[in-house]
Amino acid sequence: MIISELIGKFGKYQFWICVLIFANKFGVAFHQMAIVFLAPPAVYYCPGNATCCDSPAYNTSLFTRTIVTEWNLICEKSFLKDITQTLFQFGVLFGSLVFGIISDRYGRKSTLITSVVLEVITGIMSSFMPDFWSFTIIRMILGISVGGIMVVGFVIVMEYVGNDIRYVISALYHVPFTLGHMLLALFGYYIRDYMYYQLAISVVNVFLLIYICVLPESPRWLLAVNKTFEAITLIERIAKTNNMDIEDISTKIELFQLEHKPKKSSVLELFRSPNLRKNILIMSFNWLVSSYCFYGVTFYISHLTGDIFINVAAMGCVCLCGCLIAIPILKFMNRKTIVILGNVICSISILIIAFVPEGIVSIVFGCIGVMFSFMLLVIVYLYCSEMFPTVVRNAAIGISSMSARMGSMIAPFVAALRPYGQWCAPVGFGIFPLVAALLCILLPETKDCELMTTIEEGEAFGKSRTRNPNGNEIT
């Protein structure tokens, strides 16, 4: 697209954007995975060795206070600790969809700033809630903000970088999440009281309020909604920062706008057009499966054996490996091929857990399944952003991310099937990646393709053989 030609594919300005946006992924990781230390398994004693009682004596040698011990979420109320995480993920689901649609209509900048402000406020508020339901409701609203940050932040980055470097930035975008996952173990180790722990992981996000002053709009979005003058002003500033030629930028942009004639589109366009409808449904299912397996298997194997702090840090390391492995794979392989093979390997690894004794072997295969499911999440983020045009890109990622949250909401309940048989949970997780792999055969390839702008381009994409910027034919 003309934007990459005018501002460069990756320069000082794009580097600054990446630093700004990548920083918010630490907070996303803190809040997404916080439940591990907010509601760890509680050890308690009842008078007369009874199984349940109204006033249990809790063992506080590991954690001085958790939401379980604070509100007695044991026995008949034990399901409530899963409810609080399910409602948080429902919030992420809702936020992914709503903020995705809003950002396509009103802009990336204002939507991301709103999400960040909401995250900071609700994160701190949740630390001081006096009862379970107020805590859970505020965390659900916190989840809404996290959903917005995840979706809008990624799209901003993808709309700034050129297609040659996009696969690298897409994978690196998730590295702060994995580092945040590992840092969470450090927070949990040194802060054993849930209230101070929640406050600490929320206060560190206050620095993101700098977005109000320095975050720019996406030039692609400005062009897509026909805000040509603002787009020209921003593109000239970016080009100047990147030491690019700023002459004739205005003329080139105006000619581009005349040729493409951008018009407003809504999320319904994704379902009115047959090709886009097929792509969004299959892509959403892949997001659901990847998230379902990642959160479910992570939860499942973290309770098999070992120290909780080491387990959390180790899972973060596994995910970091998945991010780094994705970079060379994305460079040399097609997106569709990677997603198909990744789903197959993920499925096999998880299914093996059903047939081997619990212990080191099951943990190793579980880690392989977690790594591939997380790597698939990294890749489908990029794959989805390349598959849909600018006017509905955020909505497409929002819908897909919403599907991912559905997977993460279901996952804890499937992982809880372990008492009914060793094979139950692994089979429940392992079957679906095979289905996702088969459906991916119907998707188009997007490697080395410029990002599309209009609905017409998106509907035509993949229907016939076209050429990428390198002159190679794609389907």
UniProtKB/TrEMBL annotation:
Recorded topology in the membrane: Multi-pass membrane protein
Entry GO terms, CC: membrane
The Major facilitator superfamily (MFS) profile domain, residue ranges: 17-448
Stretches that traverse the bilayer: 15-39, 86-103, 110-129, 135-158, 170-190, 196-214, 280-302, 308-330, 337-356, 362-383, 395-414, 420-443
Top-level taxon of origin: Eukaryota
CDD domains recorded: MFS_SLC22 (cd17317)
Chief localization: membrane
Protein localization: Membrane
Record keywords: Membrane, Transmembrane, Transmembrane helix
Protein name: Organic cation transporter protein-like
UniProt key word Transmembrane helix: yes
